[in-house]
Amino acid sequence: MELSPPPSGLAAEHETLFTADSLLFLQELISTFDEEVDEVLRLRISRKVHLDLSGDLPSFLESTAHIRRDPSWRVLPVPPRLQRRHVDIGDLAPCDTERFIKALQSLAQGIQVDFDDGNCPTYHNQIKGIHNVLKAVHNQIPSGEHHGGQTVEQDICLDTTEAFEMEEILYELREHSAGLNCGIWDYSASFVNKFGHRQAFLLPDRSKYVNMEKRFLRSYMDLLVQTCHRRGALATGGMAALLLPHDPLSDSHRRVLATVTRLKLLEIEAGVDGFMVYDLNLIEPMQELFKLHTEGDNQLQQLRNDVTVTPDDLLSMPSGGVTLYGLKYNIAVGVLFINAWLSGTFPYCCHTSFGDKMKEKTKLCFASGNGHFFYRGQVEDSATAEISRSQVWQWIRHQTQLEDDSRVVNRRLVTDLTADVMMELSTACRSVRARQKLHTAADIFLEVVLRRDFPEFITTYLNLDHTFLSSQNSGQVEAPDVQRSKL
Q: N or C: which end of the chain has fewer CB within 10 A?
């Protein structure tokens, strides 16, 4: 078994985690399941190829109908400490010790410890994060009085095909899973992943036309609640990514709170048992929302027998087109996410304006090796990066017209708009190194969206498949008024 040396500054944490017993466990785990994991991954590829070649669409499996028809089975009873999970803190990468402590001290009922969407899985971040979780479990976090927050990752987020197999997934994990999660952007991005080359599954501008009120997402949430509650499992909604402005008396504060309240009330009325927020200041108002509209610790009694969800419901694309604003927004999110993963040791915060439609300045943070960042008043992570780059890829493939001026979304337009976005974002860079990394991120983004084939996951592409551009590459997206280093 191969074990890398500890990351710089984490020798003690490394030694604490990698004991003889833990290494033996890892060795047994890998030797037991390694071949099976490979087989499952090959089957996933095979299933996608079959869908591509046959033109078939997913449906509820006849081969597992006996599981769905059997009313007797349940998941293990929800343990007492998970019964009341109205508001969890989401996208919490535990390697961020300061935020982790604040979360533990907050009034949230739970913490979704995140080693996925909101975390950049560098060796340093993984060791630091796992060690922080270990300390929290053993009440060793300094000044970390626990006011009800529990470091738990309880839910499974589903993609398009898995939405047809909710009961089967719960059945297989009935002794280990407390529930399923309804993630809007993971589910939406998976449509492009599975069916992006088909014109019938063209997903319109997410900034204007995609939300939980649309038929395919509302059906997904209704079916998830019905399935989970039928089997005694918790159903959780998505995460509120919006950030509350600091001034509680400002119009922007009232607008953001009203938007979050409206969208989360839809989930509560659908029967969810809880959802996530990123901004700690949203915890109390969202808990109050649950108090006003529900009774008890959860909504497991809401069986949603009124719901009948068909394959057409789950696969129904919302109508709508593509806006210039939405295209540029998706480009910016994709570039900034890659930049967040690539960024070195120069974290800073700055302000930038973006486009004619966004007059007010918004906070933009570049962080070192981070899995999330803040842009336009909300947190963005790998889930929003996935939907952003997926949409740009799909719009190029189908030569979609812009609503604004009927221009066709093609390779040239996206390359030109990426240069425009870079010119705006580069004004926020305070060093040559920061500009260079941002331009590298833009080059990689274009690699991803201009490919004929669709990279399944942007994170996998960045981790395993990408050959980093050489420093001699002058880049495809040079911003005209930003001088780049000659080095």
A: C
